[in-house]
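DATA CLASS: polypeptide
GOAL: derive structure tokens

***
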Amino acid sequence: MKLAIDYSKPIEKRSLSYLVDECSFDMNPIAFKVDFELALNKIALLVTDGQVVHLSGFSGYNEWQPFSALVPDCRRGVLLVHFANYQRGVSYSLAEDVSTFVNMNTGWICIGDHKRKGECAEFITGCRVVLEGGKLASLWLKPDALPNIE
């Protein structure tokens, strides 16, 4: 499986929320057509026609680590998944037990290595990805509001 960014296509326009009572991310509107999903910790990146179109899943804010790193600059582009042998309806793991960081001042959450550099794109409103060599280095999320964890 290889991830890539296509800057020539418009991004998905969805709103990202963090549901405090469920400790989870959700998006509106919901994507109904899904071929398969990619899992990062307990976050699901839903793939339709080879493109990540939706994000949701559990992320307990009590496990988030505070940090002061700034979100990487990027352009807008769709996140493509090149995966010839997928099975419809199956979840494939990108990584498990990846650290999650939060910058309460900026409202950005980073899942993965916030220090790694690479190709960056905002692929859904409020969702950015950093890729290195076709692999996910970090996922950056900015929900409409953060829980009060101070």
In short: The CA atoms of residues 68 and 81 lie 30 Å apart. The chain has one domain: 2-141. The longest strand covers residues 51-58.
